[in-house]
Amino acid sequence: MKSPVNVAITGAAGQIGYALAFRIASGQMLGADQPVNLHLLEITPALGALQGVLMELNDCAFPTLNKIVATDDAKIAFKDCHAALLVGARPRGPGMERKDLLLANAQIFSVQGKALDEVADRNVRVLVVGNPANTNSLIAQRNAPNLNPRNFTAMVRLDHNRALAQLAEKTAVHSTRIRKTTIWGNHSSTQYPDLHHTLVDGKPALSLVEQSWYADTFIPVVQQRGAAIIKARGQSSAASAASAAIDHVRDWVNGTPEGDWVSMGVPSDGSYGIPEGVIYGYPVTCKNGDYQIVQGLDLNEFSRQRLDATHKELLEERDGVKDLI
Ligand code: NAX
User: Where does substrate bind (predicted)?
Assistant: First the structure.
């Protein structure tokens, strides 16, 4: 048996945390031969509920779950952690403006960035799920100057998986037969789900669907899927978000299949004309525990405008928290 790895989950008593912890503990993220120590972080008032999660995790008797730490202290939760899934965030309260929400979360992610910087494993992989995910990831990264900035990522994988599901339904194939789909930019309604390079059973997706379906149905449905789930369920996406977080980390660690790519929010490096300075959804391939942005894709005017619009929103978000980065 391999030696255990330390996986931190913040907001572990919340909706997504509850779905996530059990799947990670049962080996679905890092493998059935990889024991994990779960480090669960919550705010003090949620520690009682977190104890309940801990009791249930123990009651599962998972062969891959080695140890659980449950705490309200980020420095205990992040101590020597190899992966940190930052899910806990402040929800929008009554009368709260978007700007206030951004700032409230910026405080949380600057504190957590500093704690990671101080105590996490030097190669810790960080996935931010809590919204606004891209900007929260940037804040954590900027507050952790001693860690590899490339290791701070944000989740756009749920949007990616939603895009696969929509296209699979439209073309009547299983989603496993779809390759090379991209979510560019922000995990928000400005994200750009791009099918220009997508293949369905090896055929260009855009040769199988009408342009009007792509532009007027597919793109808005993917962009607004979170709101549709809230309307239907009365609560925001949780199990699908947890599943996407597992996909993100698993592929980052274990690699992406040959001939395909996934979407990850990663620090922009100038690729596709997006200047450095934001965490941006890109098509990436993963190998040997690292990711690379897919290069050389053609972008037509339709795509260019959408890449720039979502970048503009990220710059506005960044400006709103500039004192904390
Ligand atoms: P919940 O409100 O159910 O859970 C959040 C948990 O975080 C709560 O238990 C809370 O006590 C805890 N928390 C708050 N501040 C904390 C802190 N400073 N340290 C540790 N824990 C803290 O929300 P849930 O539905 O689980 O969603 C969590 C976050 O994911 C939200 O910000 C949500 O907007 C975001 N989402 C992001 C998605 C993405 O694709 N990137 C999709 C799903 C989801 O909407």
Answer: 92, 98, 131, 162
DSSP string computed for 150-166: GGEEE--HHHHHHHHHH
Q: How many CB atoms lie within 10 A of CB 72?
A: 15
Pairing of strands 125-128, 83-86: parallel
Q: Active-site residue 187, yes or no? A: yes
Closest residue (by CA) to atom 8 of ligand 1?
A: 14
Residues in the ligand 1 pocket, defined by CB under 6 Å: 10-11, 13-17, 41-43, 46, 87-91, 108, 129-131, 133, 155, 158, 187, 226, 236-238, 241
Sorting pLDDT into bands at 50, 70 and 90, what band is 323? confident
94 — phi, psi (to 5°)? -60, 135
In this predicted model, what pLDDT tens digit does every residue of 213-266 receive, in sequence order? 999 999 999 999 999 999 999 999 999 999 999 999 999 999 999 999 999 999
The residues with which 65 forms a beta bridge, in sequence order, are: 36
Both 114 and 172 in one domain: the answer is no
Q: What is the pLDDT of residues 132-173, one digit of tens each?
A: 999 999 999 999 999 999 999 999 999 999 999 999 999 999
Same domain, 175 and 263: yes
Q: Check: pTM over 0.90? Answer yes or no.
A: yes
The pLDDT assigned to 96 comes to 76
Does residue 220 have a cis peptide bond before it, meaning omega lies within 30 degrees of 0? no
State residue 244's pLDDT score: 98
Of 39, 187, 197, 248, the active-site residue reads: 187
* Structural domain containing residue 11: 5-154
Binding annotation for NAD(+): 11-17, 105, 112, 129-131
CB 109 within 8 A of CB 139: yes
Q: Separation of 317 CA from ligand 1 center, angstroms?
A: 19
Domain termination site, one of 124, 154, 184? 154
Q: Which atom of ligand 1 is nearest to the CA of 11?
A: 7
Q: How high is the pLDDT of residue 91? A: 78
